[in-house]
Amino acid sequence: MTSLLSSHLEDCSTPQYFCFSVRCEVCGEYWYSSSIPFSKAAQAAQCREKKELYDAIYQREKLRAREAAGQEARERFSQCPVCRRLVCDACFLICDEMDLCRECAGRMQEFGEPVAP
Amino acid sequence: MLNKLKEIRALNAFVKKQSVGMQRKLMLYWVSMILVVFAAVILLLSIAGVFSQSDERLQEVMELHLKNTQDNLVAHLDRLTAQSLNLSKELSREIEATLIQDGISLQQVNDDPERLLKLQQIMYPLINATLQAADCNGVYVILDATTNTALAGADHSRSGIHLRYSNLSASSPVTPTVVYFRGIPDIARQKDLELHNRWNLEFDTDQIPGCRELMDATLDRPAQRYFWSRRIDLKDTWESAMLLCVPIVGSDGTVYGVCGVEISALYFQLSYPAADGQFGSAVTVLAPLQDSRLLLSEGLVGSVSGTYLDGQETLVIHQGRYYNEYDTGTERYIGLHQIMPISRGEAEDTAWAAAILIPQDSYAAYTADIQKAWVMAALVLLLVLLAFSFFLARSFVRPITDSLKRFQQDELPEQSLSSGISEVDELAEFLNARARNQRLEQGELPPNIAELFDQFVVRKDLLTESERNILRYYIDGHEIAEIPDLAFISMSTVRKHNRSIYEKLGVASRDELMLYIDLLRRCGRLQELF
Amino acid sequence: MKKRWLPALLLCLLLSGCSAAASGGYLISAAEGSEAYSEALLPFLPGYALRDGEDTLYAEVARGNAVACFDVQAVPAMTRGVGRYWYPHVTATVVLAVDRTRTDAVITGWNSLMESGVPAGMSSFSVIRNMLAMGALSYGLDWKTPTKQDALNYLEQLHQNGGFELDGSDAPVLICLDCEAAAWNRNGGNYEIIVPEEGTLSYRIGLLSDVPLTLEPGLDEALLSAGLPLAGGERPPGFPADYRVARTLEGKDYDRFLALAGDSSRDLRRQVFHTRLYTTADMREHILSALLIAAVILLWKGTVSHRMIRHDVRRVVVMMSWLMVGWLLLRLLKYQLPSEGTLCRMCWYGYYLFQLALPVALLYLTEILDRAEGKKRLMSPLWPPLVVYILSVGLVMTNDLHQLVFRFVPGGSWASDYRYGPGFWAIMACSLLFLAFALWNLLRKGSRSSSRRGRILPLLFCVGLLAYLAAYIQRVPLAWESDVTVNICILSVLFFETVLHGGLIPVNIQYQRLFASAPISLTLLDEDGRTVLSSPGARPISRSVWQRLRTDIQQPLLRDRDTQLHAIPVRSGMAVWQEDLSQINRLRREIQDVQTRLEAANTLLREEGEVKKRLLTAETNRALFEQLDRDMERRITSLVRLIETLPETEQSKGLTAYITLCLCHIKRRCNLFFLARQGEPLPGDELSMYLDELAELARYAGLQTLIRCGQKEGLEIRSASLCYDFAFETIAWALKEKASPLMGYLETEDARLVFRFLPGGDPGRWQFSEDLTAAVTALGGQIVCKDLDDAFGICMTIPLGGEACG
According to the model, what pLDDT value does residue A18 have? Predict the structure, then answer.
């Protein structure tokens, strides 16, 4: 799941903070992870000479932020076993036989309750 | 009877066995404690006599008031009497001197207007002085002589001077004007006095009961016999007054006339205002007492504001323990009275009493006020205490129940939950330790474990497919955090499934579930779960 | 016939009904003080029953009843047409009654009353009696030119001297009617009746009616025995003897009297007692002022509620304004009720329903100020005030049962003589507590607010409130005498305006219109990310999106593939609008589509081009071979014929040579044919080589040939092949005709190629082949056979130049 999510994480970071988004493939809405500020944003903006150093720090922190975002997304996204799409909690239904995404459940006449209302 | 007792006992035992919530029990204890304290306080207060002291206080107050009033009255009347006696002495001296000078007796003054005028001129300064000095509103002197014996009512018409104050009102305390009520008008003109609009030349002795007898009697000295008359209406006016009648005695024992002071009803009213106390307005009364009846119409009544008295009633007296009751027939008054002697040598046997009266309604209202205030205060206090106890109990119990509820749900792994209450924390520790110990313990199944297992296994049929899937992961030994990676569902979904699994299988936490699974595995009955 | 009877019958019934009402009429006492007269009169008026007045004088008279009233009421009524018959019987004079049990002051008239300093009062405060007294006083003070102002000044001075009360029926001196005072004396009172020596007025009491009344005899004696002085001048005992100074009104005096004494109650209140300077003092002013204030309140409500976004605050405003309006209207209703009965008291209790609700409303307002809108349940801090309010109202309403709140004698004059019970103080304390809470809340929230106005305005309001309370306690006239209801309403309105202008409620006029008409989906979020306002069609903003927006508000954010969110911060929150990218995305996709298609089309076209090229090449080849076939066909057939005839002929050598020549010619011609397709020019050397070859072969056949090629440069293939064909045909002819020697010259002259042959014979009848001729003509050349002097010449001229059009 983690690898699936990390492949779906889109980068919305700016030089000041790290943020990633995941798109639910059923409803199309984006979910954004909590923005983690870059600890050296001020210094990076000021010192032009140390650009590569701060870039390296940025990348390192970005990796960590990506992992954190992945963990956050893990709380909210599931994979539908039928259509194998990444689905947010609002479109993921808990049915009796199996948990499906909204569309597959509708298609196969399974009724259930969404995980998040 | 015995059956009833047994029933009550059984009920009590039953109630004891029921498990009641903490809050309710605490509330119950609080409430009973409050009620007990309340009852004790009320008992104490009634023993201390807080509730029944108003009557005693009333009696104290009234006795004090009555004593004061009586002292005042006695002093007042005594002073007036003394001044009148003095006046009588001086008048007698002057009259005697004049008569001796002219060589006539009093009888010869009849039908002689000039002599009468001369006598009156002599008497006037004394009367005026007495009026200025005395605390009354009029001074008079009646001579046993008349201007014209030939007139129709001459036998009860006597000459004299009567000076009065007019324009008495409580709002203007400055010097009231002297008015010439009875007497020869020449004097008034000489002294520049106003004539009363009901001025008459002579007195009508029929108006003053007892006056004629006094004048006909033979006395040694004035102080031998004097009296205060009952309240009489002044002729042709709408005023009434009490007159002090002191004989003017000559050296040979003849009574030349009667002199004295006048206290009008209005003057008495203004001098003795109604004392407005917390029990009501207290009215001062000076009235004759006859057969346990106060005859107000024949005495003087102080200011009656605040009551319904009008000064004409007859009050029937009922003695009481703390105070007396005075009944007019339509209204009741409470108060005290005391006999005071104000006359000497009175013909009839009348007793004068000074009394103070308070309307019973106002006293009753006062006591009712107090009682109501007590009751209201007690109720309010009780309610406040009950509410207070309720809130305290709730705030005491809430943390405990919250932390207990948290135990039940127990989704977090075994961290130490601090609930702020040491006992609950210890219990948490103990339970955790026990749970851990249970897992470590080998073998030894108590006898009802098999039954529990059976129930558990039966309940597994309630689970849906997806929940069974999650359960399989648990059986395989995975942790909750690993399931999203294994089953490709979100953590929220996992939590929801967890909750329904716990509910359906009747376990309270993941530890319990793992315990069951572990035990089943050890007993080799794990297959029944699939 | 019957139908016409019916309306007439009905009419008769109606009329008789009316008159029946008139004949069994009522005798009504319309003025206070005339009851004794009415009772004494009743036995002498047959057919009339005594009844209390229910309506105004005019209405009762118009209904046909007989009304007992004063002449100052009756005579003006008659001049106005109400009532036609006036029967005066009794005189009543305005006198001074001195209670001699309480004072012995010497009073003889108005001036001595003033000097004596004794408290005075009026025995009755009904309007008509006020008028009578004022009129008498005016006439008394100034006989000839009575004015109202004199009387008012007199009374004002009397009041200031500490003596005059309007409702002072227990004052020692009373201004009343003489028959009244006499009645008191008969009942045991001790009043001296003094006719003021300066002057006074005597009024008549009588019956006013629309219909003539028949009175039985004996009325005068009855009136006298009832203690009423007659209009003729006889008086029963108990009345003062000297009435000379009393004057009766006549004729024109009535109008002057009405001008003098009108509005007496109001004038008394305003000018003598100086009460109610700031409130209403009589019937007239109540209605207008109440309606005006209610209109102002509703106007205020309208302006304020339009400025509110939050519905709960708006609801509070609406409720407050309706409370205030309701209170005013209830008060108006109560003032209109003539009699002070239970309904009146209920109305009075009803005041407290509104009065107690206002602090609770203000408390509610301050509580909801910084909470989010939308919570349906009432919050827990507000249940106690509501419960207490309901209990208080219940307590007040049931006051008649327990008299805990207001204490009065039941059945007595509860309106003026009531005291406050413990319940009242408890209720007031609770109400003031709520108000204090509300103020505390206001101050607290105001102090936390960021703008300066928000901090200062609540303080100002508190200061103003305290000033008003202090003024009220100190009995400053403006505060003490002004209308408490209106003051409370004004304070509530000021409280709300303080909250509003202190910036504690978000207020904006424009937001709502903006939202309603925004074509883009606009959402307004508060500081916690909750939606406050959204335009129609805007989808809700999820929490993660809001958090992201909050972190970086400048950057637009993708909500999904088709929606982009932009946000700006606004006061206490942010505004988010969504931009629809679907069109752009669609366009982009379309462009991509079109691009792909175009590329595919290009590829196709390119392939098609290549195929066409190949086809064309194949076609060309085929055409070429066909042409070659055609070209050579003739020659090949003749050659085949020649070859067939070869074994049969004797000149085999010549024939064979000729066949060989033909073959060579064919071969070279094919070469030339293919060279022509290639498009290169033939070098001159090669052509001369071919020509030499031909000549060589011709020699084998026995023809002496010499061909000289003077053309060195490249030649067009067509021209070259024509030359070669020409050369062959000439040689072939020459062979046949044995016209040796044959000399040929090929050279370029100007722009022409000239090929001359000099055969050794006569070409005379010899024709070139049609093909050759046609080809030469097509090229623009010619073949000429010339007859020279001793020889013959064959000349072919071909113009040079131009490209071979292929």
Answer: 92
Kindly determine whether residue B488 and residue A89, on different chains, have CB atoms separated by under 8 Å: no
Quote ipTM for the complex: 0.86
> C424-479 pLDDT, tens per residue?
999 999 999 999 989 998 888 888 877 787 788 888 999 999 999 898 888 887 77
Q: Is A95 on the interface with B (CB under 8 A)?
A: yes
If asked whether residues C152 and C243 sit together in one domain, one would say yes
- Cα of A69 to nearest chain C Cα, Å: 12
pLDDT (mean) for B523-530: 79
In a domain, C599, yes or no: no
Label residue C277 by pLDDT band (50, 70, 90): low
Q: Quick one: pLDDT at residue C123? A: 80
CB–CB of A34 and C547 under 8 A?
yes
- On whether residue C623 sits in a domain, the answer given is no
∠ Cα B341 B343 B346 (to 5°):
115
What lies within 8 Å, CB to CB, of B502 at 6+ separation is: B508, B509, B510, B513
Assign a CATH topology to domain B422-529.
Answer: Arc Repressor Mutant, subunit A (1.10.10)
Which residues of chain B make contact with A75, given a CB cutoff of 8 A? 490-492
Nearest to C422 among B168, B197, B373 (CB): B373
Planar angle of CA B484, B486, B487, nearest 5 degrees = 70
Q: How far apart are CA B484 and CA C797, in angstroms?
A: 100
Residue B485: list chain A partners with CB under 8 A. Answer: 1-2, 74
- Look at residue B215 in the predicted model and tell me its pLDDT: 80
pLDDT at C22: 43
Domains in chain C: how many in total?
A: 4
Which pTM does this prediction carry? Answer: 0.40
- DSSP-derived letter for residue B110 is T
C218 and C351 share one domain? no
* Cβ–Cβ gap C560/A23 under 8 Å: yes
Q: Tell which of C501, C535, C550 closes a domain.
A: C501
Distance (Å, whole) CA C467 – CA C481: 15
Could you tell me if C411 and C366 lie in one domain? yes
pLDDT at C12: 53
Average pLDDT of chain C is 81
Chains that touch B (3 or more CB pairs under 8 A): A, C
Residue B412 pLDDT more than 60? no
Residues B351, B288 contacting (CB under 8 angstroms): yes
With b for 16 or more beta-carbon neighbours within 10 A and e for fewer, the B115-154 pattern comes to bbbebbbebbebbbebbeebebbbbbbbbbbbbeeeeeee
pLDDT band at A67 (very low <50, low <70, confident <90, very high): very high
**Structural domain boundaries in chain B:** 23-52+367-406, 53-363, 422-529
C30 lies in which domain range? 24-272
Beta strands in B306-444 (DSSP E): 314-318, 324-327, 332-339, 351-359
User: Which of A42-51, A107-116, C10-19, C299-308 has maximum average pLDDT?
Assistant: A107-116
Of C524, C550, C580, which residue sits at a domain end? C580
* Residue numbers in C near B237 (CB within 8 A): 100
Residues 6+ apart with CB under 8 A from B357: B282, B283, B285, B307, B309, B315, B326, B333, B334, B335
Minimum distance, in Å, between the CA of residue B488 and any CA atom of chain A: 5
| From B465, B491, B492, residue closest to A98, measured CB to CB | B465
Assign residue C668 the CATH number of its domain.
Answer: 3.30.565.10
CB proximity A70 to B under 8 Å: no
CA distance B375 to C422: 12
- Same domain for C478 and C554: no
pLDDT reported for residue C724: 85
Is B490 within 8 Å of A97 when comparing Cβ atoms? Answer: no
CA–CA distance, A88 with A26 (Å, rounded to integer)? 8
Give the pLDDT confidence score for residue C298 in this predicted structure.
Answer: 93
